[in-house]
Design a protein that fits this description.
This protein is mainly alpha-helical. The chain contains twelve helices and no strands.
Length: about 300
């Protein structure tokens, strides 16, 4: 017998399990096939990116502060005029006019968007084509051009011209938002409603729209924020809104007030109003999630029922 035959065959070694940082992280409960978790080296690199970006933003902010202090923008003589009653009244009146224009534009944009969305979802081809043409036209037109055309060519007053321009643009954008939100609802919901004998209006009102609103709400609020910021275009047609009031104050030589302090007063108020709208959107979305109509209803476990007469 040969020496090779006398040797017992070696048992195969079990495969080594190499547990890397990637496999350790993907084994967690929050792993997903759509996201590749970064390894330790990538995480360190991302941390350095965050540190460098923070340092760059801090350096830019410090440089802006240096320029403001170097040009004496924080001296008392440049901020004392804001204590005058006339300037305060002018700013408050401009802020009120801004909110009034935004309120009109927001309500009318939502109504126009709903009407155009219904037209685009219509089964009648002429209605659908007309609604599509209006949406594409007003969505492609610059807001300022529409405002100037209504104010100059049609000789409309400043407030109606501003509101009309904002309504036509934002309403056409919201029409696409509404149409996309309704179409995003699963097709089975629509088919089940029709199978129950509902009409199209009932399907839209009771089935599709309540489900689509939750998906549309962030985009709707974002578009309303755009409408709020676009009210500042009213100063170009001499509408006495918030920015127009700041321009009047800065250009008044009696106050000897440069434009930078006015901007530093007006900008935080605009940012605060936009943040308030965003907060309202988050609050409303959370309230809808807690709505009993949208929460899952617990089902009691099965239990033996009452036997029919004569049953065993």
């Amino acid at each position: 017998m040969s020496s090779t035959a006398s040797k017992s065959p070696k048992s195969p070694k079990p495969p080594r399990t190499v547990r890397t940082a990637r496999t350790a992280k993907t084994s967690r409960s929050d792993s997903t096939a759509l996201y590749d978790f970064p390894g330790p080296r990538t995480e360190r690199r991302h941390r350095w990116y965050g540190v460098l970006a923070t340092a760059a933003v801090a350096a830019l902010f410090g440089w802006l502060l240096y320029l403001l202090f170097a040009t004496d923008q924080f001296t008392a003589t440049k901020w004392t005029p804001f204590e005058y009653q006339g300037i305060q009244d002018l700013l408050l009146r401009g802020l009120g006019n801004t909110l009034k224009a935004f309120a009109y534009a927001a309500v009318l944009s939502l109504v126009l968007g709903a009407v155009l969305a219904c037209g685009r979802l219509s089964e009648h081809r002429p209605v659908r084509w007309a609604a599509t043409a209006l949406v594409e036209f007003f969505r492609a037109m610059p807001v300022l051009v529409m405002i100037f055309f209504i104010f100059v060519a049609l000789k409309v007053q400043a407030l109606p011209a501003l509101v009309a321009g904002l309504t036509l643009y934002n309403g056409s954008v919201l029409a696409e938002v509404f149409r996309t939100g309704v179409n995003s609802v699963e097709r089975g919901q629509r088919e089940a409603a029709y199978a129950l004998g509902m009409r199209k209006t009932q399907v839209m009102t009771y089935v599709l729209v309540p489900q689509a609103v939750r998906a549309m709400l962030p985009t709707i609020i974002s578009q309303l924020v755009v409408a709020l910021k676009d009210t500042s275009l009213g100063y170009l047609i001499t509408y006495e809104e918030f920015l127009h009031a700041g321009k009047l104050i800065a250009s008044n030589l009696d106050y000897d007030l440069p434009f930078i302090p006015v901007v530093m007063v007006i900008s935080p108020i605009y940012i605060g109003m936009c943040m308030l709208l965003s907060w309202f959107a988050h609050w409303l979305a959370g309230r809808q999630r807690r709505n009993p109509r949208t929460e899952a209803v617990g089902v009691a476990p099965a239990s033996p029922g009452t036997l029919l007469p004569g049953g065993q």
